[in-house]
């Protein structure tokens, strides 16, 4: 007994319901707790550790940069920040990047950009941002307002005004709101993560851009969770013919260090002027160097492997005892149990030596490292299948 759990419970703000494991060290897709118990990680720190724990390529890029410069502030130019922005723009077709430290902050930047654009191009009353029910956009007061789940709105009133929520995959319902509210932007997750691993229909996403031609609003695509190869494309919008006006990402981009990015398309590339937005740590050279090393590895061949593993997971979990439904794309997968709660299943799976997450709609959520070896993936799936089967009434 190290007393870590007790110390944490005594001194760390009680905002988290933690699993009863004190994690000590990891390598690749495996992690060990303080008692030496080994887990296969099918959550990757909520989709952050794209290449698992202590990945050599990422670590070398970060350490090399740490040995040169760890931080400069944004008063100066640095190489890794500029090069990462260049790669993100080259690979998406978006034009400029604002760097910050988290998904919520990236979304704040997107909302700021959309409000500036709408005021200038549509009119001062065009302030509404429409987001979707069951979405999740972050924990700041503004991104909580953006989050389309009532349970996130209750505790911290008043939230930032100007957000209304539409049902996913319902273009008619969206148009009703567009007629009622002068709208600056519609904000979506191509696959809703926290809200239940719900995949938006391609025709719906493409339909939103048709409506944008009529109503003039911008499309903001929150790829904080779906980005960086997670769904089997570099960004999830690439499964469609749509190029959003603004794309945000975070989680997996930094490979384990904090980073957020708000990518601005042609309509908003010059919306910000010096002083309009900022971040002390944003674009930190060590974090950007690690992100760049990871991004460079997310090539077509690697993404093919992500899709192959995804197909394998769907095949092994389909029509298995205790599993009511499967959802998701790439290595972002939701499993709905026939019986019992996702939380109790996650606990049982942890006892079996596998880390998983939960999501809305009573889902167990899998976000394994993108490079998880086949043997470990199968071993983890054995434990997961057994837990679901044992839950069957
Ligand atoms: C996690 C998440 C966020 C919030 O990111 P933080 O880094 O925790 O601020 C926003 N949007 C989506 C889709 C997310 O999954």
In short:
This protein has 393 residues and is an alpha/beta fold. It contains 12 helices and 17 strands.
Describe this entry's structure for a reader.
- This protein is of the alpha/beta class and 393 residues long.
- The chain has 2 domains: 144 residues, Aspartate Aminotransferase, domain 1, CATH 3.90.1150; 241 residues, Type I PLP-dependent aspartate aminotransferase-like (Major domain) (Aspartate Aminotransferase, domain 2, 3-Layer(aba) Sandwich).
- The strands form 4 sheets. A 7-stranded mixed sheet has the order 4-12-11-10-7-5-6, sandwiched between helices. Strands 1-2-3-15 form a 4-stranded mixed sheet. It has a 4-stranded antiparallel sheet with strand order 13-14-17-16.
- A hairpin with a 3-residue loop joins strand 16 and strand 17.
- The model has no long low-confidence stretch (mean pLDDT 97).
- The site of pyridoxal-5'-phosphate has 15 residues, from helix 5.
């Amino acid at each position: 007994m190290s007393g870590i759990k007790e110390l944490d419970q005594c001194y760390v703000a009680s905002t988290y319901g933690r699993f009863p494991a004190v994690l000590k060290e990891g390598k690749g897709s495996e992690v060990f707790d303080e008692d030496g118990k080994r887990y296969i990680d099918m959550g990757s720190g909520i989709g952050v550790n794209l290449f698992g724990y202590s990945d050599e390529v990422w670590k070398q890029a970060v350490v090399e940069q740490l040995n040169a410069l760890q931080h400069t502030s944004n008063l100066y130019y640095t190489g890794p920040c500029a090069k990462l922005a260049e790669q993100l723009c080259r690979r998406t077709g978006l034009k400029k990047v604002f760097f910050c430290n988290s998904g919520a902050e990236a979304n704040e930047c997107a909302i700021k950009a959309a409000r500036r654009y709408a005021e200038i191009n549509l009119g001062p009353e065009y302030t509404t941002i429409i987001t979707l029910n069951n979405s999740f956009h972050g924990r700041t007061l503004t991104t909580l307002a953006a989050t389309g789940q009532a349970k996130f709105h209750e505790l911290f009133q008043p939230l930032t005004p100007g957000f209304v929520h539409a049902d996913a995959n319902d273009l008619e319902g969206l148009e009703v709101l567009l007629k009622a509210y002068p709208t600056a932007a519609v904000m979506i997750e191509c696959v809703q993560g926290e809200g239940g691993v719900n995949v938006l229909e391609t025709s719906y996403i493409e339909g939103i851009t048709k409506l944008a031609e009529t109503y003039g609003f911008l499309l903001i695509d929150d790829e904080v969770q779906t980005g960086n190869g997670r769904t089997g494309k570099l960004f999830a919008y690439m499964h469609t013919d749509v190029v959003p006006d603004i794309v945000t990402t975070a989680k997996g981009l930094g490979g384990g260090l904090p980073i957020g990015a708000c990518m601005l398309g042609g309509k908003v590339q010059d919306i910000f002027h010096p002083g309009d937005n900022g971040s002390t740590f944003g674009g930190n050279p060590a974090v950007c160097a690690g992100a760049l090393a990871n991004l460079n590895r997310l090539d077509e061949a690697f993404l093919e492997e992500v899709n192959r593993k995804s197909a394998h997971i769907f095949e092994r979990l389909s029509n298995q005892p205790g599993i009511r439904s499967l959802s998701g794309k790439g290595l972002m997968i939701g499993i709905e149990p026939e019986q019992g709660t996702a939380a109790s299943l996650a606990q049982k799976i942890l006892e079996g030596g596998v880390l998983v997450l939960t999501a809305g709609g009573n889902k167990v959520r899998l976000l394994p490292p993108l490079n998880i070896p086949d043997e470990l993936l199968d071993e983890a799936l054995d434990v997961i299948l057994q837990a679901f089967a044992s839950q069957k009434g």
